Amino acid sequence: MEYKENHDYSCNKDITKIKQFNIRIFNQLLNEIGCTDFTCEQSFILQALWRKNELTCIEIANETGLAPNTVTVLLNNLSKNGMIERKANPKDRRQVIVRITEKGLNAKKDFDKVLSRIINIGFKDFTETEYEQFQKSLEKLCLSYENYFNSSLKEKIC
């Protein structure tokens, strides 16, 4: 698809609105169940750690799509709440390895409760087929942006 002048391209605005609503609703639902250990934004990091148990800060940034400075801020708060711990990488002392704690592992129950409500709110009017098509379209869009971003970074480095 190519850009067409005077065409209504509102999907970027809509994606931003969806993201903002999702974060606000997610945090509201966490509050409703009394979970104060993490936020929606921090859950992106927790999800990566639930899958892999321990990662470097750069790996977390790559897994989540978050900027490294944002990862640092979120990790500081997760550490204060006892959800993660940091340690020096024995192979490279300049690197920090982030490991999920038992408390962080247990937080998955609260995450799953909230996620199920978020899915039921956001996708209540979708059929299974519509959801799968939507998911595939988002993955395709995400991959296009990732490829551009990664190639753009390589051009700046070289």
Task: Give me a quick take on this structure.
With 158 residues, the protein is mainly alpha-helical. It contains seven helices and three strands.
Q: Please compute the radius of gyration using only Cα atoms.
A: 18 Å
Whole-number count of domains: 2
Low-confidence segments:
none
Number of strands: 3
Overall body shape: globular
CATH superfamily of the largest domain: Winged helix-like DNA-binding domain superfamily/Winged helix DNA-binding domain
Going by helix content, strand content and strand pairing, the class is mainly alpha
How much of the residues is beta strand, in percent? 5-15%
Mean pLDDT: 92
Helix content: 55-70%
CATH-assigned fold name of the largest domain? Arc Repressor Mutant, subunit A
For the record, the CATH architecture of the largest domain stands as: Orthogonal Bundle
- Briefly, what CATH class of the largest domain? Mainly Alpha
> What summary fits the major beta sheet?
3 strands, antiparallel
Q: State the separation between the terminal residues, measured CA to CA.
A: 30 Å
Strand order of the largest sheet: 1-3-2
So how many helices? Answer: 7
Subcellular location: Cytoplasm
Domain HTH marR-type: 1-143
Main location: cytoplasm
GO molecular function: DNA binding; DNA-binding transcription factor activity
